[in-house]
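Trying the structure run again after the queue cleared.
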Amino acid sequence: MIEPSTTVISLSNANVGDYKDVTFKAYDNFGEELKVELQDFEKLAGSPASNIVTIVTGPAYRFSGEGAAVGTYNYQVKVNGLFTYITVNVSAPAIGVEPSYVAEVTPGEVDLKTDGLADTNVTIKLYTYAGVKQSAIAVTGQGFKVIVKDPDGKDTVLETNNYTLVDVVSGGAIDKKAVGTYTVTVQKEFEDTSYYYDVYTTTFTVKDTTEAPTVEVKTLQSEEKDLLQAIKDCFTFKLGNTEITDSVVAPEYIGNPNGTDVYVVSVKYEQRVGKATLKHTIPVGLTITKKAAN
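Done. Tokens:
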């Protein structure tokens, strides 16, 4: 079975670089996900003459509207030996109408899982809109602002088309933004007054499929006096199948670390990913009994 990300697309043929990537998921008869192979595509009879599809890294079929003849394009595409159909409607912007505004966020869903080699961004582009995209507008200046509100309520006014969600510092740390829903708001200045009002709002979502370290309880009692050593005595910490107990540091706790009964909130672990370091906080949430330090 194959699942396309969409089967119906609307594109502008104006000089705005309008395109849509169609990606796929493939499954075997037991529902297990398979590697996707894009094999072929065919434009069906009755479609306009323009060639609007290519295969790009992803993999994906990319349908591009810029400069294409207006009309409805029907494609048969082959993926993992199976066929499905994509319909693309290419239109010219409407003439003689007051345009509205639209912000396009690519991709619409972002995974914070990183290879530690490059930043992870969303690209936000602003357009005038007259039935379809009409012209591109800079996200800053020209009387417009584009504001991104994160799940914690913090606003960022864009200075470029990119909004960074994972910041990778080579030889340093990997900094990730929060998981959740982000709101993108376009504001337009009212007649050079420095007063801006909302003209468009959209959202995108952020998830994180990074594998998290785990903790297993061996015992809740230790003969160790040092809190960190007692924690390592009581618990086994793993990342996947690899034990990382010796590498955990910086316990957060409630109580006297030199006493006997201490509630362990969490520990830290630094994972090398690519050229940078990803810092994990590993929840524990248990009280251990150890020897008093004095």
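The first helix runs from residue 227 to 234. Worth checking whether this holds up in the mutant runs.
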